[in-house]
Amino acid sequence: MSEINKVVVHYLDGRIVKGTTQDFFPNRPLFHLTPPSGPVLDIKCRDLKAVFFVRDLVGDDRRRDLRGFVTGPAETSLGKKIAVRFKDGELMCGYSLTFTPEREGFFVSPSDPGSNNLRIYVVMAAAAEVKAGVAAEALAQRHLGDQAA
Q1: pTM (2 decimals)?
Q2: Among 68, 89, 90, 123, which is least packed, fewest CB within 10 Å?
Q3: pLDDT at 135
Q4: DSSP 8-state assignment for residue 45
Q5: CA 127 to CA 22: how far, in whole Å?
Q6: What's the rounded Cα separation, in Å, for the pair 28 and 23?
Q7: E-assigned strand segments in 2-137
Q8: Which helix (DSSP H) or strand (DSSP E) does residue 146 occupy?
């Protein structure tokens, strides 16, 4: 039997749906999500920005994730530093073992170890810019500098 994963699905149009899934695979065009109440939903990956695999579906509204990169090495057991700027302007920083620009998506482990997110599947079509290594640091600093101005 497949593992039950708690997920928060972010659509390209801004909608967010929470629930559980047992059949998410990166190379498949759809998966099923069971919300806390209501029928099972068919989720089409082409409509998504990202799938957040989380510790808890409720989360903590008072908690603020650390922005940019937590001080750390350029590469860890979680992969190389990576920064993703989505088409909607959001910046995500973390580490990835699976980033390849030719794929439809890739997994990111959050740079903030206290995050509710365990890992995030980023859909490449939703990304405006993806940088790895030193270039990821530069993208994060540039983006956060623009936000402060």
Answers
A1: 0.88
A2: 89
A3: 87
A4: G
A5: 25
A6: 9
A7: 5-11, 16-21, 30-33, 41-44, 48-54, 75-76, 79-86, 91-96, 105-110, 117-123, 127-132
A8: helix 134-148
